[in-house]
Amino acid sequence: MLNLKITSLDNEHTLLVAISNGDHKSFETLFLHYYKPFGNYVFKLLEDISLTEDVLQEVFLRIWTDRENLHTITNFKDYLFIITRNRVYNLLNEKSRKNVLFESLNEKANFKQIPQEEEEHKADLELYYTLLEQEIDNLPLQQQKIFRLSKLKKMKYEEIARMLDISVETVRKHMYLANQTLKNRLKGKEGGILLVILSAVYQRF
């Protein structure tokens, strides 16, 4: 098994109780604490930055959609590790990777066969993307374009600037305005959780 050294938050149980009650700010605190070390862990297994980002999105969105029982969890770090490990396994299974790769990963991460994720989690993910897309569509055209290139196409600011023939500073300004607008419009809504995850995950680990 890979050595995963991560310190739990001192007020973690309090955060879990708050998240169980739908508190977005507590979820953001928990997410920002764990996403980077777990991102590094997933990347060591997959060796693919794009797949790693996909795993992080789905894992943390699943935690949010299943939040009602979070207050009963006594060791969140272990809980998160199991969900993450299993999602990596399912992802590789879905992609029909070669058995050699599965055997290698079994040795590295102690994988076990588990059922496919429930359809309801996929539906939740689609719903969050729909809510976010609706608000992106309401942004000014240039902000829409730049936000999608940065957050959804995963392009760097320098690449966007070259593509659109504008300065990097202009890209940065549009991204700031787009993020502020989306945060305000999605505050307290389910799509806001996806925005938090996208904003952090695509900064890379």
UniProtKB/TrEMBL annotation:
InterPro entries: RNA_pol_sigma-70-like, RNA_pol_sigma-70_dom, RNA_pol_sigma70_bacteroid, RNA_pol_sigma70_r2, RNA_pol_sigma70_r4_t2, RNA_pol_sigma_r2, RNA_pol_sigma_r3/r4-like, WH-like_DNA-bd_sf. Signal peptide: none annotated. Transmembrane segments: none annotated. Residues 30-97 form the RNA polymerase sigma-70 region domain. Residues 131-178 form the RNA polymerase sigma factor 70 region 4 type domain. Keywords: Sigma factor, Transcription, Transcription regulation. One of its GO terms (molecular function) is sigma factor activity. It holds the Pfam family Sigma70_r4_2. CDD domains: Sigma70_r4. GO terms for biological process: DNA-templated transcription initiation. It comes from the Bacteria. Belongs to the sigma-70 factor family. ECF subfamily. This is RNA polymerase sigma-70 factor. It comes from Sphingobacterium spiritivorum ATCC 33300.
